[in-house]
Prior knowledge:
Blueprint: E1 3-8, H1 12-27, E2 31-32, E3 41-46, H2 51-65, E4 73-78, H3 79-84, H4 87-91, E5 97-99, H5 107-112, E6 118-120, H6 127-131, E7 140-145, E8 147-148, H7 159-162, E9 167-168, H8 171-180, E10 184-190, H9 205-213, E11 220-224, H10 233-241, E12 248-250, H11 258-263, H12 270-283, E13 288-290, E14 292-295, H13 302-315, E15 321-324, H14 342-366, E16 371-379, E17 385-389, E18 395-399, E19 409-417, E20 421-426
Parallel strand pairs: 1-2, 1-3, 3-4, 4-5, 5-6, 7-10, 10-11, 12-13, 14-15, 18-20
Antiparallel strand pairs: 8-9, 16-17, 16-19, 17-18, 19-20
Helix pairs in contact: 10-12, 13-14
Amino acid sequence: MKSFYIKTFGCQMNVYDGQRISGMLCGLGMMPTDDVTTADLIILNTCAVREKASNKVFSELGRIRNRKKPDALFGIIGCVAREEGANSFRRIPELNFVLGPQSYHKLADIIENPDAKLLNIDLSGLEKFDALPPMIDNPVVAYIPIQEGCNHCCTYCIVPYTRGRELSRSFDDVINDVHAATGAIEICFLGQNVNGYKDKDGKNLADLIQATAKIESVKRIRFTSSYPTEMSDGLIKLFGQEPKLLPFLNMPIQSGSPDVLTRMNRPYSLVLYIDIIEKLRDVCPNIQISSDFIIGFPGELDSDFEMTCDIARRIGYINSYSFKYSPRPHTAAATMDNQIPENIKKQRLKILDDILTENNRTFNESCIGHTMPCLIEGRDKTGGHLLARTPYMQQVIIAATSAAAVAPIQNIKITSANKCSLRGKIV
C-alpha cells in the first residue's frame, strides 16, 4: 500500500484542509506516514500570511527534496502555492504539483498521472467541498470551515489574493459536516471572516450555532476569527443565551491607534470596538476576549504604539497573538512610506508581549480555586498526565485517572497557575 506524508503550516483552516486531504487519500487506498523518507506522496500544506511562514515552507522543501524517495511525488498546496504559482517550479524544480487553497482536491489527478506537472491556483469557488468525501471521525474537536476569503481588504493582508473574495458554504452543507464529525465534543467554526457568514438563504452564524447546539453529542461551540463590524447584536446576545457557546471570543483589533487602523483599512472606531466588548460583557459577564496585534505597521509612531499598549491593558485580553508587521506581496502596505526599522519593531513587540503575558498570568491566577467544566483532549507524551482545555482555551494539566477516560467533559478544580497553563484535579 502506498503512503502519504502531510506537513501543515499555519492556521486552523489549514488543519481542517489537512484532515480533508487525509480522508481523501485514505479513500484512494493510501495510508498516512510520519516518515518523509518512505512516503510515496509528500504534501506541504502552506500558509502565506507572514513572510517568515513562506520562507519556512521553501526551506522545508529544500530539505525534503534531498531526503525523499527518488520516485516520490512532491508538492505544495495552500496559500504559498497560490502566492508563488509557477515560480514554485523555478525555485524547486523537483516539485510535481502546486495547488492553491481551492484546488487541493485535484491531488487525485497527479496520483493518476504521476509524470505530469500540475499547477492549479484558481479561486473558482467552493468546488472542493463538493468534490471531497465526507469528513472522517474527529477526535474531540472538529474544525469546520463555514466561509473562505475576505472582502475587507486590509492593506497588510494577503488573504484576498490567496483565498479570494468571501464565499459562504450552504447552511445544510455545514450542518451535514457537523453531523459527520462523529466523536467530536466541540465544534469550532472557521473562516477568514467567520462572523460575516451568510448563505444564499440569508442564514448566518447565529443560525448555525443554534442548530448545532440542538445536537446532543455536541457540548461546546466556538468560532474564529471574528471581524469587529460583523459582530451583530443577535450574535452578541447568543453569548448570554446559549450555554454551549463558550464564553470566549477572539476579536482582532490589530492596533489601538485610529490613524494606524485607517492606514490598515480597518474601518471601525475604537468606540465601536469597545462598545462591542461592553455589550458582550453585559450579556455574558464571565466572557474573556483574545485578540491579534500587528506591531510596527508603516508609519506607526511611538504615540500610536502607546495607544495599542493602552487598549491591551484596558481590555485585559487573554491568549492573544502579536506579530511584527511583515510586508507581503500584492498588498498596499508593502509599498507604503515610512516602513519601521526591524530593531524598533522588535523592541515594541517585546513591550506589548510583556503586557499580554501579564494579562494572561493575572487571569490564570484568578482561576485558582475555581472549578470549571474542561474538555479532555488526551494524554501528554509521558502518558502520566491528561491535557484538558477550559472554556477559555487555557491548557490544564491533571493527573491521569480512570474517571477521566469515561467522560470527555470533566469538572476540574484549578490548583495552580502560571503564564502558560494551569494545573488542576478532577472533582
